[in-house]
Amino acid sequence: MSDIDNPYGTFARYSADLSLFLLVAECGQLSRAAELAGLSQPRLSQRMKSLEDSLGRVLLSRGRRGIALTREGQELRAALSPHLGEAAEGFLRLQRPARRRTVVIETDLAFAGLRFLPVFPSLCAAFPDLGISLLTRQVPESGPGPEAELVIRMETRRPTTETETCLFAERVLAVCSAGFRDAHPQLVRPEHLRHMPLIDLSTVDAPPWFTWSSWLAQLGEGTGAHSKPGDRLRFNSYDHVIQAAETGLGIALGWRGLVDSKLGSGALVPALPVEQESQRGYMLQMLARQPGEEVRAVYDWIRMSFTEEFEDWRSGAI
Asked: Which end of the chain is more exposed for a tag (fewer CB within 10 A), N or C?
């Protein structure tokens, strides 16, 4: 096949030197172009002279103050620059790994550890092209961190809108190990809790969820029904509260939606046959007024996964 019929073959013989020619034309100096190309100045000058000889055209006018393009050099630059420049930029983009879009979710430690992390691998698998980042705090502030795009926290329940929904209501029961309950057969009514070791979650400020005092008060037991403060076991992590209850150290408050798997496995059992529900719940919110498609897709996945599963539990399906 002749060179006329094979333009790629013809171009391939000159492509490297033509790219160097465009670099020289852009820099206006052989020294600077050689530095950028990783060549010595004499070597670059030699290659430009070789290109001129091959094409039979004088492309560069060399002077004390640098180089200038001849008329033929200007014509060559005009013919090559738009196309080679676009090709060079496209190749550079191909070499650079695409930055993954990351969606940042903020929630409290209890929800993250007991409820969200078990489904986190499934969430990541559902969005392989996205980065999913989970930020946790003991008590998420009223104003989430500036990087958060979705937030899940205990708040007063509100009607579902396009940007927020309640994953499940706050529904709480007293839980303990099966061994602890068997060792205390007298524990049948809430007033019996006054003689039992209660396990508390310590927080700096008043938490936006049930405490032993508010849970018992809603039962009508008042503050006098629970044990003295000295009889309490206190932890600043809900994971530790639950672990302490599992090992038989006392009775803890267990949130439906967080401890269901432990109740199902028998690691925990209800200490009393009563549950209390508040007007609060775990609210899922999109923080941006106009969230992007990625944020909305993650929001929809969480909303559907959690609310459907919780409804299955309430209906007795699980």
From this structure: N
Domain boundary among 75, 95, 115: 95
Distance CA 144, CA 232 (A): 31
pLDDT at 82 over 60: yes
Q: Within 10 Å of residue 312's Cβ, how many Cβ atoms?
A: 11
| Angle between helical axes of 41-55 and 30-37 (0-180°, round to 10) | 100
Q: Among 58, 75, 95, where does a domain finish?
A: 95
Q: Could you tell me if 22 and 170 lie in one domain?
A: no
pLDDT computed for residue 255 by the predictor: 95
Give the pTM: 0.64
Distance CA 18, CA 26 (A): 12
- Domain interval for residue 183: 102-314
For 203, left (φ over 0), alpha (ψ -120 to 50), or beta? beta
> Beta-carbon neighbour count of residue 12 at 10 Å?
10
Whether residues 260 and 123 share a domain: the answer is yes
